[in-house]
Each structure stands twice: as structure tokens, then as C-alpha cells.
Specification:
With about 600 residues, the chain is an alpha/beta fold. It folds into 3 domains: about 240 residues, Aminohydrolase, N-terminal nucleophile (Ntn) domain (Glutamine Phosphoribosylpyrophosphate, subunit 1, domain 1), CATH 3.60.20; about 190 residues, Glucose-6-phosphate isomerase like protein, domain 1 (Rossmann fold, 3-Layer(aba) Sandwich), CATH 3.40.50; about 150 residues, 3-Layer(aba) Sandwich (Rossmann fold). Helix content is about 35%, strand content about 25%. The chain contains 19 helices and 26 strands. The strands form 5 sheets. It has an 8-stranded antiparallel beta sheet, covered by helices on one side. Helix 14 packs parallel to helix 19. The longest helix is centred in the last third of the chain and has 21 residues. The termini are close together. The structure holds 2-deoxy-2-amino glucitol-6-phosphate. 2-deoxy-2-amino glucitol-6-phosphate binds next to helix 8.
Length: about 600
């Protein structure tokens, strides 16, 4: 998704803006652009492609904005790259999100004589502000009026050459203000200014922050209703610089895979006492947990797979019905939600537009809400009744890895915590599972010691164009995630499905060129799974499997297998996903793919 950054201060934008924009690289983009105020004019530079190959020097100045574009409205071109200007070239705008009523606004502005030079939805914004300025409004009033006319999600940075002002407006898309020694920064994510600002102000929806270049730049926040807001408390940014570096790894994804033992440790630290789960974030929420009659989980992509695992865990431990839904579909049905229904939104970024919309719909229908996010202070966290942070640290690789395993760890703790509150599982059973959870980091490290085996399996199988990922019970959800990992970073066709469902149609695809990856690491339903393996073998299909170390019986049936340490069934996804993440990584690396920034994908999907 698009990334936006802005700077206003005593330093030089030519130092800050390219570096800040580069930090947002992970979001995925196809073109980029800058506007710097210099000698009373916007100096615009736009290019198609990646910043990696950008060696030009941008103009010097003390105030400027920049943008990475992930095309939605209009093809990838310099013309469509941001910033966009008003006709009189007074106002420059960069934007993340979608202006849904752009067509009608554009028609009205064109009728008034405005000339558009791009196909984007964004370009209506500078023209709309210009229209209000032409009516005699000041910059602040014109921006506020424009924001009130826009429908959809947006985070905007607006630069006015006449008043030497920069402002950021937020409605639905993320926007954070960074307070640094050398000035004020704006970015879609605090990672953008991590090198220059130690404190941040998270803007709320319907807020505009204005910064004026007058001696020391200062910030004032106004609502879309025009009223000045009380000063907001700045929060310390909790991202250590090293977390945004590759630290010697070839890709962020590989680094993040190998960080998982420490991430699980930091995620569970302080959340286990006397071998029982403790979730301080849910204090005050316990009454609701006890009353919950039904749970609905909304999420997308990898977070959706974590949600499916949660369904399995919670139904088993709480004995209440749980439904998992693609967040994007939730609000377009008529979901039956009562006040004793708990809706849980899962999102690494906490900004995914589909998940946020589902959460808002659930609230509108009177549900209790809870969020599991990796970014504290994110919109989904702020708008939920309670929020639990997964504490995985910044995840830069587009393919989610450590966010997934920490989501599962939090969801397991949540399932166990609820079972204690509701008295639906014995303390002995709960303690046994918690004990296994505590052993996960050590067992993950044991898997990493055997990484060369999975690298070899990946290498010999990287010639295939199609894969089936199959599992039963809790292993099925791991199979789905394994397939998603492979397809998103290698562009190889990979499907996940329940192993037994294959015979209802998909088995027609199996031949010697269509390998099947079986996940049987939970140790459950193994006899049944072996039957499904035989079905593939009988059709000359190649079988690769992820099994636990005690399962020599299944190993004998497979062409290739990878063993993980034995653990409790409900804990097993935390281990069985590791070889599949590595498999996807090594296949993609063998194929020379752009692993951290796969084509067409964005890290934070802030459009519907
Ligand atoms: C997973 O590797 C993908 N990057 C994607 O499916 C992601 O999980 C999805 O877009 C949801 O993102 P979120 O967790 O930030 O809401």
C-alpha cells in the first residue's frame, strides 16, 4: 500500500525524506515522488520503480512531502505518481487510501474549470482545496472543508507553498506524527521516522495536524469540525533501530523467521504465572468473557489462518461456538450478532481496512469487541473494547511469519485464560498446555538446527509449478498458511485444503508433477492422514510431509519428510509452521524472487 512521509524543521529534507521513504519500502509500491518547498516553489520529482535504483539528489529545503504509490486508480506512471498539484501549483498532496467519491468531485471541479493531469482519485484533493482557497478561505479552513467533502479512507499530507505550511489529515488510513530533535515528521508508520524521532503522536480519525515553518516548527491539531484539540500526549516509540535492519540476513523474512523463538519469549513474558495464563489487558473484561455465548473472529490472510487455529482452540477449551470469517465479507452480509457475542479482530498491522470495517460493523451491531494486534496504538487496537499486543516487534517482510506465531501464542493464552475464567477445562490440563508453550522457543531452535534439510527439500522441489498442502484437524490450518506462504513469495500455485476433502474433486489434479505437502505434526488423526497419503501415492503423486519425530510409520510412506519435536496437539502449529515458512523462503530464493517485496503485494492493506 502507499506510504507517505513529510518533514518540517531545521534540517534538510534531502537527508530525511528519501531515508524515511525507504523505511516504508516494506509496504510495497511501484512508483514514488517528492515535493520540496524551495525558493517559494514546489520542486517535484516523480519516478516509476523502486527507490533502490534512485541515485538522484532531491532538492534541498526545510519542508517537504514524499510518497510511495501502490497503484489503485490509474496505471503505474510518473503522471499518476504523487504528489499531485492544484492548477495554480500552490497546493501539493500525497495520499494513502481511496477517495470513494472522486468521480463526482472530479466532474464538479472540471465543470468549474479545474484541469486534471492524472487518472488518480487523489488529484481531486489539491483541486478541492484550491476551490475553497479561491472562495477566499484560509489554508486551514480550506483543508478542513475539503476533508469534509471526501468520502472513503485517507491519510493526506498537504503542502502549501504560500503559507509555508504542512498538514496531515487522517480518516481511516494510518498517519503518525514524529517529534524529533531537528523537526516534525509525518509517516504512515512510526518505522518511517524511527531514525530521527523518539516520540510519536498517533492522530485519530477526523483530525488534522498543522505544522508551520516559522523558526521552530510547532504542531496544532484540529478536528474536521474546525475545533482546536487539546494537546495530545506523545508516546515513546518502542522500536529499537536494529529491529528495522536485516542484521546480516539475506532478507527480512529470513531474519524474522529466525527471530521467532525470542518473539514467543517476549510475547509470553509476564503472561504466565504459576503455570497459568495471565492477560492483564483483559482485566475488567472478565465479566464479558464469562457471559460470552458465541465468538466471531474476523481477519484477513495469515491472520485469518491464526483465527482458524483459534476457532479450534477455543471450541475445545471454552466449549462455545466460534465462527471465523474473512473480514472483507463480514459487513456485506447481515451477521447475526447479539450483545453476548464477542467479536475478535486479528491483525498484525492493526490497520487492515477490511478487518477494521468488520470490527466497526460488529460494534454497530452491539457486539463486545477485542483485538489482537502487533502494532500498539494502531486503529484496530484503539477501537476495540480490549486489545492484546503480540509483541513480535516490527515485521518488515511482506510475508507474515513472526506475527503469525505470536498471534497463535496469544490466542492459545486467550483460550486457556477463558477456560480458567469459565471453568471449562481442568487446571491440570491447562498447566500441561502452558508447560508445552513454554518449551516452544527451545524446540523452534532445534528446528533451525536442521534448516539445511528443509533447504535441500526446497531446492529439489523448486522445479514444480503446483503444490497441494494437506492436513487434518489443527494441521489443516497450518497447511493453509504453508500454501499461502509459498504462493505469495514464489508465485508458485499452491492450494491448502483438508486432506480428506481432496478426494471430492481436487485429486484429479494429482500426477507425478503435482507434489502434495502433508502436515501431520499434531499427531492427531494419523491413521486417517496416512490413508490420504496413500491416495496421492496411488496416483504417482510425490509426497513431502511435516511430521513429529515419533512418527516413523508416516515417514516410511513419504518421498521426503521433515520432523519437528513432539509437543501438545494444541501447541503444534507453533512448530509445524516453521519448516513450511522455511520451505517457502528457500523455494522463492532458489527461484530468485524478490522475497521481502513480492510483486503485487503490500504489507499493510489499507484499501478495501
Ligand atoms: C501474509 O503473509 C500477508 N502479508 C497477508 O495475508 C496479511 O496477513 C493480511 O493482509 C492481513 O494483514 P494484517 O494481519 O496486518 O491485518
Amino acid at each position: 500500500m502507499c506510504g507517505i512521509v513529510g518533514y518540517c524543521g531545521n534540517g534538510n529534507v534531502s537527508e530525511f525524506l528519501p531515508a524515511c521513504l525507504k523505511r516504508l519500502d516494506y509496504r510495497g509500491y511501484d512508483s514514488f515522488g517528492f515535493s520540496v518547498l524551495s525558493n517559494g516553489d514546489h520542486k517535484i520529482l516523480k519516478r516509476v520503480g523502486k527507490l533502490d535504483y534512485f541515485a538522484e539528489k532531491i532538492q534541498s529545503g526545510n519542508i517537504g512531502i514524499a510518497h510511495t504509490r501502490w497503484a489503485t486508480h490509474g496505471k503505474v506512471s510518473e503522471k499518476n505518481a504523487h504528489p499531485h498539484l492544484s492548477c495554480d501549483k500552490r497546493i501539493a498532496v500525497v495520499h494513502n487510501g481511496i477517495i470513494e467519491n472522486h468521480s463526482s468531485l472530479r466532474r464538479a471541479l472540471e465543470r468549474k474549470g479545474h484541469f486534471f493531469s492524472s487518472e488518480t482519485d487523489t488529484e481531486v484533493v489539491p483541486h478541492l482545496i484550491e476551490a475553497f482557497l479561491c472562495e477566499g478561505k484560509g489554508f486551514r479552513e480550506a483543508v478542513t472543508l475539503a476533508c469534509n467533502h471526501l468520502e472513503g479512507n485517507f491519510a493526506l499530507l498537504i503542502l502549501d507553498k504560500k503559507s509555508n505550511q504542512l498538514c496531515g489529515a487522517k480518516n481511516g488510513s494510518p498517519l503518525v506524527v514524529g517529534l524529533g530533535n531537528e523537526g516534525i515528521f509525518f509517516a504512515s508508520d512510526p518505522i518511517g521516522f524511527i531514525d530521527y524521532a523518539g516520540k510519536a503522536i498517533f492522530l485519530g480519525d477526523g483530525e488534522i495536524a498543522f505544522v508551520k515553518m516559522e523558526g521552530n516548527s510547532e504542531i496544532e491539531i484540529f478536528g474536521f469540525n474546525g475545533e482546536k484539540k487539546a494537546a495530545k500526549k506523545a508516546v515513546k516509540i518502542n522500536l529499537r533501530r536494529w529491529q528495522a535492519e536485516k542484521n546480516g540476513f539475506k532478507h527480512f523474512m529470513l531474519k524474522e523467521i529466525f527471530e521467532q523463538p525470542e518473539c514467543i519469549e517476549s510475547c509470553t513474558a509476564g503472561r504466565i504465572k504459576n503455570s497459568l495464563p495471565v492477560l492483564e489487558e483483559l482485566e475488567g473484561f472478565n465479566g464479558k468473557i464469562k457471559k460470552t455465548e458465541r465468538i466471531v473472529i474476523v481477519a484477513c490472510g495469515t491472520s485469518l489462518h491464526a483465527g482458524m487455529i483459534a476457532e479450534f482452540l477455543i471450541e475445545k477449551l471454552w466449549k462455545v461456538p466460534v465462527k471465523v470469517e474473512c473480514a472483507s465479507e463480514f459487513r456485506y452480509r447481515c451477521p447475526v450478532i447479539g450483545k453476548n457475542c464477542l467479536v475478535v479482530a486479528i491483525s498484525q498491522s492493526g490497520e487492515t481496512a477490511d478487518t477494521l470495517a468488520a470490527l466497526r460493523e460488529a460494534k454497530r451491531r452491539g457486539a463486545q469487541t477485542m483485538a489482537i494486534v502487533n502494532v500498539e496504538g494502531s486503529t484496530i487496537a484503539r477501537e476495540s473494547g480490549a486489545a492484546i499486543c503480540t509483541k513480535a516487534g516490527p515485521e518488515i517482510g511482506v510475508a507474515s511469519t513472526k506475527a503469525f506465531t505470536t498471534q497463535i501464542a496469544v490466542l492459545l493464552l486467550f483460550a486457556l485464560y477463558g477456560a480458567v475464567q469459565r471453568k471449562t477445562a481442568s487446571k491440570e490440563e491447562i498447566k500441561l498446555i502452558v508447560l508445552e508453550l513454554k518449551k516452544v522457543p527451545v524446540k523452534m531452535r532445534e528446528i533451525f538446527e536442521k534448516k539445511n534439510k528443509i533447504k535441500f527439500i526446497a531446492k529439489v522441489n523448486s522445479k514444480y509449478s503446483n503444490f497441494l498442502f494437506l492436513g487434518r484437524g489443527i494441521d489443516y490450518f497450518v497447511a493453509l498458511e504453508g500454501a499461502l506462504k509459498l504462493k505469495e513469495i514464489s508465485y508458485v500455485n499452491a492450494w491448502g485444503m483438508p486432506a480428506a476433502e481432496m478426494k471430492h474433486g481436487t485429486i484429479a489434479l494429482i500426477d507425478k508433477n503435482f507434489p502434495a505437502v502433508f502436515v501431520g505434526a499434531s499427531g492427531a488423526l494419523l491413521e486417517k492422514l496416512r490413508g490420504n497419503i496413500q491416495e496421492v501415492k496411488a496416483r504417482s503423486g510425490k509426497v513431502i510431509s511435516i511430521i513429529n519425530e515419533c512418527d516413523s510409520e508416516t515417514a516410511k510412506l513419504c518421498n521426503e519428510f521433515f520432523c519437528i519435536p513432539k509437543t501438545h496437539e494444541l501447541v503444534s502449529p507453533l512448530l509445524s509452521i516453521i519448516p513450511l515458512q522455511l520451505f517457502a523462503y528457500y523455494v522463492a530464493d532458489e527461484m530468485g524472487r524478490e522475497i521481502d517485496k513480492p510483486r503485487n503485494l503490500a504489507k499493510s492493506v489499507t484499501v478495501e
